[in-house]
Design goal:
This protein has about 475 residues and is an alpha/beta fold. It has a domain of about 240 residues: Amidase signature (AS) domain (Amidase signature (AS) enzymes). It has 17 helices and eleven strands. An eleven-stranded mixed β-sheet has the order 1-3-2-4-6-5-10-11-9-7-8, sandwiched between helices. Helix 5 packs parallel to helix 6. The model has no long low-confidence stretch (mean pLDDT about 95). The structure holds glutamine.
Length: about 475
């Protein structure tokens, strides 16, 4: 079977009888099987997805199928799928099974999407290379000696290698956009609160967003349309009406006012080919009549530290629930209650997660709270205000998604700060709560994909999609 880059073509072929949901599942299962060495899936729901495919084929015949009938979806191992294992890439959740569906997952199922499996990721979504998973790293399908990015590495590779049509991941500081850039696919982080977080394993709750990996903008828009919206189980989710993203994506092209951050472009950390890709994009946009101007963003150097102070603080609090009592792993070598807590957490959590819990606990401690946590909250507000001001004058901001293309496995393993720098351009949108997307924009001289990132104002995902379409037609 051929690979589909657009779900609309699948729907067309389903209706004309060229394919069935059953044959689509068989196709993706064979892709998963052929590339097991990439370590993308932690569970594959083989029989179950084939059965469900049959059911949906029947619904299609009866004209009763939902709007995602035939869409094969993979879930990052941080999303609850009822009666299925969930581990957040961690040993501490050994043996844990979800008792309910995440709201986003439920909405997909209600529209007849088929869930094919659970995808590998960095432990508790902490990482930028997928090397922090308790189940081993995921490999990049273009070059198996390179990382796929993180933390949603499995989800990105799954779409890239046609193991599913769409993946659902989570983006707290870039975990959808960064791996999307490393794997040459589209990755969307919606506005904070656009999609319910109910049933998403919490990392940094004021940053966490469910995001979407796809090959086409149309698929991304359609899935967002389905999973976004209000939810009684998440008090932070927005009540703002969900637009018809797919319809809005297909509006006639308009001229955009585009800002780009000149300091990001001149950053010494930026790989020269990525700089060239952005410069070419800028030139082409100008020649097509869009307004493109440089802006100074004076708070740039504070974005990464602000993120790593606040996200670790929230993580230290969120992860306190994994105590050996309520979920998953309990150390067998304990003598009393205290040693059970200590040993279960020391044996259950990996190194990076422990580092972040320690960091977060430190910045929240009575003596240092004002110097770190409180100050970072204030800086976060300033960053958001400054970006909002830019977005009152421009429709979108463009910048690189990542400083480099996919690096070799092990490159930053011994140096956490170096690894954190991989998030230099992606954490901004999360600190400010703004929507952002990464779209493929050519390759570097070794053939590795480059991602361009676009950011827009709150709830302006339609603008992101429309502008991405213009950019995709340039390259
Ligand atoms: N790489 C970032 C981190 O390790 C982002 C992770 C994420 O978005 N989940 O925190």
């Amino acid at each position: 079977m051929k690979s589909y880059s657009n779900f609309a073509h699948i729907q067309h072929d389903l209706h004309s009888g060229v394919v069935s949901c059953h044959s689509l599942i068989e196709h993706h299962l064979s892709k998963i099987d052929a590339k097991k060495h990439l370590n993308v899936f932690l569970s594959v729901y083989e029989e179950e997805s084939l059965l469900r495919a049959k059911e949906i084929d029947q619904k299609l015949k009866n004209g009763k199928a939902g709007k995602l009938a035939g869409l094969v979806v993979g879930l990052k191992d941080v999303l609850c799928y009822k009666n299925h294992p969930l581990q957040a890439g961690s040993k501490i959740l050994d043996g844990f099974t979800s008792q309910f569906n995440a709201t986003a997952v439920q909405k997909l199922i209600d529209e007849d999407a088929i869930i094919i499996g659970r995808q590998n990721c960095d432990e508790f979504a902490m990482g930028s290379s997928n090397e922090n998973s308790a189940f081993g790293p995921v490999l990049n399908d273009i070059d198996n000696t390179r990382v796929p990015g993180g933390s949603s590495g499995g989800s990105a590779v799954a779409v890239m290698a046609d193991m599913c049509q769409v993946s659902i991941g989570s983006d707290t500081g870039g975990s959808v956009r960064q791996p999307a850039a490393f794997c040459g696919v589209i990755g969307l982080k919606p506005t904070y609160s656009r999609v319910s977080r109910h049933g998403l394993v919490a990392y940094g709750s004021s940053f966490d967003c469910i995001g979407i990996f796809s090959k086409s903008l149309e698929d991304n828009a359609l899935v967002l349309e389905v999973i976004a919206g209000s939810d009684e189980h998440d008090s932070t989710v927005s009540q703002t009406k969900v637009p018809h993203y797919l319809q809005e994506l297909n509006q006639p092209e308009k001229k955009f006012r585009v800002a780009y951050m000149s300091d990001a472009l001149h950053s010494p950390a930026l790989q020269p080919e990525i700089k060239t890709a952005i410069e070419n994009t800028i030139d082409q946009l100008k020649s097509r009549g869009h307004l493109v101007e440089p802006i100074e963003f004076s708070l740039n150097e504070f974005v990464l530290p602000t993120y790593y102070i606040l996200a670790t603080a929230e993580a230290s609090s969120n992860l306190s629930r994994f105590d050996g009592v309520r979920y998953g792993y309990r150390s067998p070598n304990t003598t009393d209650l205290e040693s059970m807590y200590k040993k279960s957490r020391a044996e259950g959590f990996g190194k990076e997660v422990q580092r972040r819990i320690l960091l977060g606990t430190f910045v929240l401690s009575a003596r240092y709270y004002d110097a770190y946590y409180n100050k970072a909250q204030k800086v976060r507000r300033l960053i958001r205000n400054q970006l909002k001001e830019v977005l009152s004058k421009y429709d979108v901001i463009i910048m690189p998604t990542t400083p480099t293309t996919a690096f070799k496995l092990g490159t930053h393993s011994d140096n956490p700060v170096e690894m954190y720098l991989a998030d230099l351009f992606s954490v901004q949108a999360n600190v400010a709560g703004l929507p952002a997307i990464s779209i493929p924009s050519g390759v570097d001289k070794t053939g590795l994909p480059i991602g361009i990132q676009i950011m827009a104002d709150d709830f302006e995902e339609s603008k992101l999609f429309q502008f991405s379409k213009i950019l995709s037609n340039l390259v």
